[in-house]
Amino acid sequence: MAVFQNDTHLFTATESSIASTLFNSPPFQSFTVFILEVSSNPFKNIHSPAFLPIERTVPVDLVAADPEAETFKSSVANEDGDDNVTVAGFVLFVPSYTTFAGKPGFHVEDLLVRECYRRKGFGKMLLSAVAEQAVKMGFKRVEWSVLEWNVNAIKFYEEMGARVLTEWRVCRLTGDALEAYGDANY
Amino acid sequence: MAVFQNDTHLFTATESSIASTLFNSPPFQSFTVFILEVSSNPFKNIHSPAFLPIERTVPVDLVAADPEAETFKSSVANEDGDDNVTVAGFVLFVPSYTTFAGKPGFHVEDLLVRECYRRKGFGKMLLSAVAEQAVKMGFKRVEWSVLEWNVNAIKFYEEMGARVLTEWRVCRLTGDALEAYGDANY
């Protein structure tokens, strides 16, 4: 995603920074990730205490030859004795809140389908799963950001029923400008 | 805020919808609110298990005559036997996540200072408190949205060190378009 957005200079995450920050709370209460896994075998032993996995069967020619299958081999799949399962994408989202509705929502931080799995409906599957979860929980909004030059993504989101808000801008406080508030004297 | 944004038709929150959704988790783990209270008496018995309140003394002529002081009287203040404390504003924020940094951040959902308390530095105090909390927790980003025609707000945010991102757009899935995913067959 950093490559796609021309933002590799902003990428500083490590396996340890992610592992120590991302999975400290039950699903849906804070940072939550849905993982998209693909296998040419039927899945077995799919289990999750908080979420019933969504399973789809797609035509075999939709599962592309994956040049990085070994790198993205699923560790969960290994537990189940199926070493043929590959991580193809993910969606990361967090609860948000709308005071206008007095109800929570979800903010989708990242949606990514690995390149060789694109244009096969997997992105829609991931985003729809978030929307379905929101409705199940009585949440009233799902929001995310898109780069304005990414016309394919905008078309895709609009086809899913989303509106692209033209009059809002994102403000971001990061880096030294943020750290300056660490011992603020305001 | 709904009035200011010409969005009163979108406002459906009630005291009960807010009370049942907003205060179900410890501060900073999910939806969190900092309340700005003003009093012409010194505060007494300020206490909070999770957050050390920030106290500021301002010149007495900065505390405006408040035509709605009775409506916005603080219930916390009443517990302390001071019925002269008024809620002047709030900031509502939630944890977010940046996969680029592999670190959490805060997303500021609402920042409001009641009209008769504006242009006195209280908005900066509220937003700075969120930024300070982010730094204390090792969070790497504070983000929020602004209406592009709200040039005063944009100037204020830039003076606080924020960048206004011009190439991102917010996508929003709400109402019937969202509810349609409730029994999705995707």
Automatic annotation (TrEMBL), chains A, B:
Keywords: Acyltransferase, Transferase. It comes from the Eukaryota. One of its GO terms (molecular function) is N-acetyltransferase activity. Residues 31-185 form the N-acetyltransferase domain. Pfam families: Acetyltransf_1. CDD domains: NAT_SF. It comes from Populus tomentosa. This is N-acetyltransferase domain-containing protein.
